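#dry-run=false #mode=assembly
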Amino acid sequence: MIDLRHVSKRFGGHTVIDGVDLSVEEGEFVVFVGPSGCGKSTLLRMIAGLEEISSGDVWIGGERMTDAEPYDRGVAMVFQSYALYPHMTVAENMGFALRIQGLGAAERRRMVEAAARKLHLDHLLDRKPAALSGGQRQRVAIGRAIVRDPKVFLFDEPLSNLDAELRVQMRIEIARLHQTLANTMVYVTHDQTEAMTLADRIVVLRGGRIEQVGRPTDLYDDPDNLFVAGFIGSPR
Ligand code: ADP
Ligand code: MG
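#status=ok
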């Protein structure tokens, strides 16, 4: 579903993503982990089309998307900061991308309500973001992604603003969502438990390169080195 072919990103003279090759299967849940500044967000944003690619190619769903606009890529991104429009209701926030796509009000409402039911947001559709809790806001941000029925969901530390209890609850909800929708998901996190429980495969990044890729249990039981062990596993 996603094919990164020797993707690099340079800011000025500084290389922050350095020749990354990675294939993500359809329906797979892939988690990026690694220290702050290693390039997780940049790599995700390059898949989303929010960051220009310095060299290499991004393929999504069998199409070369290296130069495609974000809206044309069939991806939806969920941010840590929610990025909801404060002056719009939940329904308007969720339907905004559909409006941009030119869908009429009735169809937008139907699609927004269907997505809202999946996330138990039905009763909040007419509220403004300011009247929501942090967990509800993040649910709306996820709902806004679902409503577009993307081939690929991209999550950049979506739960790190939430308190511990809510984080667990939302993690379970995201796992359930992945089971229901069976979409391809790429998920960035600092949280080892999130990585271990959500991922089909974990990608450990370090200094803009892939240090190791593998199933959670494989990385946990058999890390290639102490760096990987420090993030996921326990050295033997
Ligand atoms: P992570 O998400 O893993 O914490 P980022 O992808 O945000 O890392 O950043 C990777 C590196 O790229 C960092 O060194 C960061 O300072 C740098 N970087 C990110 N965005 C920009 C930018 N717009 N201009 C210059 N440097 C940037
Ligand atoms: Mg980041």
